[in-house]
Design goal:
Number of strands: 13
Shape: globular
Number of domains: 1
Structural class: alpha+beta
Strand order of the largest sheet: 1-2-3-9-6-4
CATH class: Mainly Alpha
Mean pLDDT: 93
Strand content: 5-15%
Distance between the termini: 55 Å
Radius of gyration: 21 Å
CATH architecture: Orthogonal Bundle
Order of helices and strands: HEHEEHEHHHEHHHHHHHHEEEEHHEEEE
Number of helices: 16
Largest sheet: 6 strands, mixed
Helix content: 40-55%
CATH superfamily: Cytochrome P450
Amino acid sequence: MTESRATDPLTLPAGDRTCPFSPPPAYEHARSRAPVSRARLWNGDWCRLVTRHEHVREVLSDPRFGADTRLPGFPFLNPARQAMAEHDNRTFINLDGAEHARLRRTILRDFDRRNVLALRPRLQEIADELIDAMTAGRRSADLVAEYALPLPSRVVCLLLGVPYADREFFQRQSRTLMDNSAPPDRVRTAIHTLDRYLIALAHDKRDRPEDGIIGRLAADGMPDRDIAAIGRLLVINGHESTAHTIALSVLVLLRHPDELARLRRDPGLTAGAVDELMRYLTILHQGLTRVATEDVTVGGQRIRAGEGVVCVLGAANRDERAFPDPARFDITRDARRHVAFGHGPHRCLGGFLAEQELQVALETLLRRLPGLRLAVPFSELDFHYDTQAYGVRSLPVRWS
C-alpha cells in the first residue's frame, strides 16, 4: 500500500507545506523519483510535471514547448487561469514566436538595466517617504499595508503613467486576477473592467507620450487592445508579486537572525541576498505551464506532442543538484541561476526592476529601523497560497 501511494500521480496543486517558505513535500518527492512525472489537473486532464532545475531551464528555453494558451492540450492550473486564457485579448506572456517578440519589444527598453538603474534614485525617495510616514510618532506598523504594497504600487503607477489616486481600483482588479479561487465570471468581469480603464487612460494620454508607458504606446499608434493587454500585465505583476516578495523577504530575514546581522554589518551583500531570497521563496509557487508542440525528450523521457507540462519553479530552486543544501538560507550563496523569474524567451521582463525594488526596500528598512522585529508570534501570521504568487496578508512589526 505504501509503495503504491509513493508512485501514484500527483493531483495539482500538490497539497500542504511543512514550512511556509518551502514547496509542498510532494514536489520534492516527485523530483527525487524522476526528471519528469505525471500529474492530474483539477479538470481531470493529465500533464507532465518537471521539477528539476536542469530540466525546468531546458523546457522553458525550448521553442517546442509553447506558452500560447490557444494550443491544443495547454494545461490550466485552475478554472480562474482558464477563464483568463479564454479572454480574446491575452498578454504577450501567453503568446509565442513573432507575436510574443513584437509585443515584448515595445516595452523592452523601459525595463533594461540602464533605464531601471536611472530609476533607482526615485525608488530610494519613495522608500524613504514611506518609512517617514510609517514611523511618524509610532514604533509599530503593518509592513504589508504601509511599506511592501505601496512601494511597488507607486513604482508601477510612475512607469505606466497611472494616477496613484486610482491605486485602490486597479489593486482590486489585480487581486481578483491573481486569485486562483475566483469564479470565472468574476475573473472575466475584472479583465473587462481593467481593460476599459486602461483604454480610456490611453485615449486621455495620447497627446502626452512623455507621461509613462501607456501614453507613449498610445502616441506610437499601438492598437487599444494591445495597450490594454500590456497595461494589464504590468498592473497585475508590477505590484502584487513584488509586494509579496518584499514582505516575505523581511520575514525570512527576521527568522534568520544570523543572516540578518550579516546583512546589517555589510550592506554590500544585498544584491546576493536578493538572489538567494528569490531562490528560497520562489513566490510564483504553482509553476509555469507549457504544452509540447512536437515530441520532445526531456531527462530521458518522451513528452508527446499535445501533452501539457507544468514546470515547478519552487522545486527547481530547491534542487540539490543546482543548490547544495537547498533548504538552508544563506545570503552568501551564489544563487544567480535561480528560476524564480522563469527562464528563456519568456523570462520575466520586469525581473531586474523587481530586484532593484527589493534591494532598495531592504537596504532602507534595515538602515532606518534598527531593532526591527515581529510584533506577533510567527504562528499567528496568516499566509495565503490561493493566489498565483503566495504571500502573507499582514506583517505586524516593531522597531527600536
